[in-house]
Amino acid sequence: MLISLGWLTALVAGVFAVHIGQKLCFPYFWKDFFHLTKVVRRGVQMEMYKLTSKVFTVLDKFVQQAAQTPNKTFIIYEGIGYTYRDIDERSNKVAQVFEKLGTVKKGDTVALLMNNEPDFVCVWFGLNKLGCSVAFLNTNIKCRSLLHCFSCCGAKILVVGKDLLDTLEEILPSLQEDGIQVWAVKPESSQPGVHTLLDKLEHAPALPVPADRRAATSLKTPTLYIFTSGTTGLPKAAVITHLQSLKGAAGFWAYGGTSEDVVYIPLPLYHSAASLIGIGGTIELGATCVLKKKFSASQFWVDCKKYDVTIFQYIGELCRYLCNQPQVEGEKEHKVHMGVGNGLRQDVWREFHRRFGEIRMCELYGSTEGNLCFMNHVGKIGSVGRSNFFYKLIFKYELVKYDMVKDEPLLNEQGFCQSVKKGETGLLLSKVNASAPFFGYAGSKQLTEKKLMRDVFAKGDLYVNTGDLMMQDREDFIYFRDRVGDTFRWKGENVATTEVAEILGLVDFIQEVNVYGVEVPGSEGRAGMAAIIIRPSCEFDGKKLFDHVVRHLPGYARPLFIRIQEFMETTGTLKHQKFRLVESGFDPSAISDPLYFLDGGEQRYVPLDDGLYGNIVSGLLKL
Fold first, then answer.
1. Under 8 Å between Cβ of 288 and 262
2. What is the rounded end-to-end Cα distance, in angstroms, of the chain?
3. CA 470 to CA 387: how far, in whole Å?
4. Which residue from 356, 305, 141 is spatially nearest to 227, judged by alpha carbons?
5. Which residues, other chains included, contact 487 with Cβ-Cβ below 8 Å and sequence gap of 6+?
6. How many of the other CB atoms lie within 10 Å of CB of 570?
7. How many CB atoms lie within 10 A of CB 418?
8. CA-based R_g, the chain, Å
9. CA distances for 616 relative to 581, 606, 622, 623, angstroms
10. Per-residue confidence (pLDDT) for residue 43, from 0 to 100
11. How far apart, in whole angstroms, are the C-alpha atoms of residue 37 and residue 256?
12. Closest to 230 in 3D by CA, of 113, 344, 148
């Protein structure tokens, strides 16, 4: 008996010691294990699709959900609930209208220009049911850019929302000359040559189109085209295949979402985050989503409490806008337990937790057209994802040394790239292979080729150049540092705009900040400049800001110029625009906004007037 008790004690002590050792040496082991298990399960599913040549698409999953839970609410929009059956039957009607007219056939591409509303999803799914690919057009693009989009994706039909038809007035003749049919989601239209959809939906049967029309035999078959918004050039049509669509739909599931969740989607559906992850993820779970026509910071928590939201999507500056709202009682009284998105800065992350509770923020990294994704399943503040030995066996990527002066990767004597050490910043490259293909952009082999790098570490290898500077620390957490084009050099040093913006964001009177580099005549590189918005009831304090940047930033990273704005220009996905700010420079005679200059002698930021500007550009004042 004593011997048995001794063995039992030793066993318990051994298990306890192993547990303590695991906690100390491998603190994230179990979280990594369970997350990787889900990744592998999804990967095996994809491989089975390849072997059987029969793909169970996101649309197939939707049709299945509509059959199994027809009365479950799928979308809540402006207070009205639409069940899975409602959306399924209305999308059938859309398919029947175009099927009867014979205007489209399997393999065609149809362009969609609509704001967020249930009919966006109905038209999307209805066209997919006919085997068509759908091109989501950014509702902010106009005229020449819009015409360019058609030449990219080859669409011959445009479906436009009722509230956007007037925006086409200028280019409508050009569209019709090019043989592009325009369909308005309206019951009637006074515009000549514009077809109407709603009146035809009233009389169309809700019968399903035969499943073989939408059947996909390959994961590589395009199902969508999503236009990426460049800051300078024309939009590029990223090819979205069933492979990418299925991966995006697994996002909420990978983070532990269930059918009981209510997902809040305030992002535009033309963006991959809202469509692939938001709508696709809701379908994967069999959950409910609250779809907003447009994000409203003042309405956000009202909606979350009203609809018992449990998961919300964010991107860019959305969480900062929520933190900038006036503080009210009961801010932590809600059911939200998870946020999924990207672009959340550390300072905002902490403030968000302080204001609204310990909501699990699930950062992820990945571009619309990319072949690599990182997921921060641990919740480490500031990190966009996590890697480990096993993850890297599945997803091949490298961080390589980058020459900021020449704006290109730093090569060794043999002409190959060089990997950085852990803790160092490098350019993220993702290997292209059978399990991680790169589909590029529609209508331009040149643009696709421009994203690729060949002979990176050996002759014949192929990688995607993400254009992102990243860092992997010793615990294998991944951190976003900057876009290659956003980082600039000053005084022979690299300045990462993201890092400088985070430091400036700590100043109490600064509500929002956008950091960029501007050219100064007679100086090499670009001098730092920050556009800021002052918090309500606060004033700009040049002395306090000076002391803060001197205390927290090295000399080369301190913004020399400050521009105070009333509002910050952003993209449709709430990312800061830098291009126009960079172009306008720091000339007070050309800029109506208040400008300030970092004056080392005065030890404060002083107003930048024409005289001071003249001294700077003439070289009388040395920077």
1. yes
2. 83
3. 13
4. 141
5. 404, 469, 481, 494, 495, 496, 497
6. 15
7. 14
8. 26
9. 19, 14, 7, 8
10. 83
11. 12
12. 148
DSSP symbols for 32-82: HHHHHHHHHHHHHHHHHHHHHT-B--HHHHHHHHHHHSTTSEEEEETTEEE
Per-residue pLDDT, averaged over 391-403, amounts to: 91
pTM of the predicted structure, to 2 decimals: 0.83
Task: Of 511, 524, 520, 530, give the one whose Cα is nearest residue 578.
Answer: 530
What are 509-533's pLDDT values in tens digits? 999 999 999 989 878 778 999 999 9
Structure tokens at 342: 């990207």
pLDDT at 394: 85
Tokens of 275: 């469509």
Q: Is residue 425 a contact partner of residue 471, using CB atoms and an 8 Å limit?
A: yes
Q: Which amino acid is at 518?
A: V
Contacts of 209 (CB under 8 A, 6+ apart): 92, 95, 96, 99, 129, 130
Classify burial at 591, counting beta carbons within 10 Å of its beta carbon; exposed 0-12, middle 13-18, buried 19 or more: middle
* Token pair listed for 195: 């077809």
For 213-242, the pLDDT digits (tens) are: 999 989 999 999 998 754 445 788 999 999
pLDDT of residue 26: 57
Query: E-strand spans in 461-541?
Result: 462-472, 477-483, 488-490, 493-495, 510-518, 527-534
Q: CA-CA distance, 399 to 378, in Å (whole number)? A: 22
49 vs 275: which has the higher pLDDT: 275
Average the pLDDT over 270-277 and give the result.
95
Three-state secondary structure readout of 557-595: HCCCEEEECCCCCECCCCCECCHHHHHHCCCCCCCCCCE
DSSP letter for each residue of 206-274:
-PPPPGGGT-BS-TTSEEEEEEE--SSS--EEEEEEHHHHHHHHTHHHHTT--TT-EEEE-S-TTSHII
Distance, CA of 281 to CA of 288 (rounded, Å)? 10
